[in-house]
Amino acid sequence: MIPLHAFVEVAAYAASAALLTGAVGVALLYALRGRSIAILLTVVSAATVLATVTGIIAITMRMLITDHDRSVTLTVTAIAGLVGLGASLLLGHRLIAASRSLLDAVRRAGDSGRFVPPEKTLPAELNELATELSTAYERLEAAHARERALETSRRELVAWVSHDLRTPLAGLRAMAEALEDEVVTDAETVHRYHSQIRAEADRLAAMVDDLFELSRIHAGALRLSRQRVGLGELVSEAVAGTEPLARAKGVRLSGLAQGVLPVEVDAAELGRALRNLVVNAIRHTPQDGGVEIIAGVEHGMACVTVSDACGGIPDEDLPRLFDVAFRGETARTPGGGAGLGLAIARGIVEAHAGEIGVSNAGEGCRFVVRLPLGA
């Protein structure tokens, strides 16, 4: 057995040689930190081999062994080091090829807007990176699609609002000029003009209010004052508020709440969304038709359905029905305004972490609002 003092001496020489070589290797790695992975791996392998060889030389110089034994030991160590160095070079080459293929895929994605992962097999880390890049580009493409759709909606909104503002303003100007120039003097006509001016002013005020509400929704500035209320109460208020319009139109209006349905919502905002849906249904239901509002529970969520008898909507129009200013063949907006009613309803429902949808059912359409059910 080797004596303790000899073992300590051997360990000290080996450690000193390894530390010295390792320090040189670390310094080289720091100096070359921005270079290729293959170069860094070569430095690591060379430092390992030199540390081993230096340690063996330092040890054999202190040990009484023959030159033959020393040569054999150094030869074996050198061969093993060269094999390790070759393996490092091969690994570095593979990493470089994989990273370059990934870089080429990213560059192609910059031109086409779509990321296609490399066909060759990548190391696990690079493969994970490629998967994340693919997901990121898909999200980016979806965001661009939403941005394009929003920009299209904004252009449509400007066009429709310009048209809808121009018409009542032209009427207001004509009636005001007629009154100012005393073209109209009889009391009955003057009274009728005053009534029309008031009605058009109210219509313009409602349109401006809708625009302001929609701008708050799109800007994320809609502040909800939540409180615990019964969904049945909101349905009853929506029915009561739209009953005069239904009666004037000759439309049957009914509302029903199935059981106690507590929800944590902003009563004023959600009430506005429900009124928009009900008024929209009444506007597009012919005389003697019916509009039905039912509140219940479906799949653990509070649910409100508004069914009308409008005759249905073309299937290609259904996905865009809640878009700003979208009208399709038949306007689905209260009062024939700027196409904001359903867009506002969707914004309010989604601000409550709810969902809104529409489908053709029976003699007309069925709008469905789903909200988280309160405790």
From TrEMBL:
Catalyses which reaction? ATP + protein L-histidine = ADP + protein N-phospho-L-histidine
Native organism is Actinoallomurus bryophytorum
**Can you give the residue ranges of the Histidine kinase domain?**
160-375
Enzyme Commission code = 2.7.13.3
Q: What is this protein called?
A: histidine kinase
Where, by residue number, does the polypeptide cross the bilayer?
12-32, 39-65, 71-91
- Pfam families annotated for this entry? HATPase_c, HisKA
Query: What GO molecular functions are on record for this protein?
Result: phosphorelay sensor kinase activity
InterPro entries tied to this protein? HATPase_C_sf, HATPase_dom, His_kinase_dom, HisK_dim/P_dom, HisK_dim/P_sf, Sig_transdc_His_kin-like_C
Query: Which locations, inside or outside the cell, does it occupy?
Result: Cell membrane
GO cellular component, alphabetical, reads:
plasma membrane
Give the main location: membrane
Matches recorded under PANTHER family: HYBRID SIGNAL TRANSDUCTION HISTIDINE KINASE C (PTHR43547:SF2), TWO-COMPONENT HISTIDINE KINASE (PTHR43547)
Recite the UniProt keywords alphabetically: Kinase, Membrane, Phosphoprotein, Transferase, Transmembrane, Transmembrane helix, Two-component regulatory system
